[in-house]
Amino acid sequence: MGKKHSEETKIKIGNAFRGKKLSKEHVRKIQESRKGYRHSEKTKKKISKTLTGRIRPPLSKQWKEKISKGGRGLKRSKETRIKISNAKKGNKTNFWKGGICPINLKIKSSVRYKLWREIIFERDNWTCQICNKRGFLIHAHHINNFSDYPNLRFDLNNGITLCTNCHRKFHKYYGKRNNTKEQFNKFKNQKYTKGWTENDKEIPGWGNIDNILINLKEIK
After folding, report:
1. Helix axis angle, 181-188 relative to 164-174, nearest 10°?
2. Angle of helix 111-123 versus helix 78-87 axis, rounded to 10
3. 208 DSSP β-pair partners
4. Residue 122 CA: distances (Å) to CA of 127, 128, 215
5. Does this model's pTM top 0.70?
6. Angle at the Cα of 168 (from 100 to 126), degrees rounded to 5?
7. 24-47 pLDDT, tens per residue?
8. 19, 33, 126, 178: least CB-packed within 10 angstroms?
């Protein structure tokens, strides 16, 4: 206990293992043996001190491709996304600057808001509900606007899919403040709209996003 290898021995050990791949069974055993292990505060400080000031060499093209392929097609569940979000929220992240981020930006960057948008898009089949174009850049528009109706920000019946062009037209006519359901009804009934009616999108039981994700108690 406490014995340290000489530099020569370290080099020999390194050369002996270089290029060798561990079997899956061996990797599994190592993972099992390390499960639940936590470094002590003393060890954490030592690691931090050792790494302070160290400049990481740039990743090779081969490594970048491996990282890219490893994450390709990976789809995390809603529960996992919310847990990751909560684990990095506020002063838990290393980017924390004392809470200087505006509240609206915080909300629109949250997982809860992203899930609200995704459900709106999925419900509307990723299709603009004004011009019926699909496959264009789309936005999740708040029928009663985001700033003036905070209680409806995550209400699924208050969201609708619009393409960039139709979304821009709406706000050109009515501005970006005090937008209402009446304004939207008037907008969609203009000459370039096609047959969508209000009742088509009122889906019973959808309501607020918290009803869709009722079991995800981590949402704040």
Report:
1. 120
2. 160
3. 155
4. 9, 12, 20
5. no
6. 90
7. 888 888 888 888 888 888 888 888
8. 19
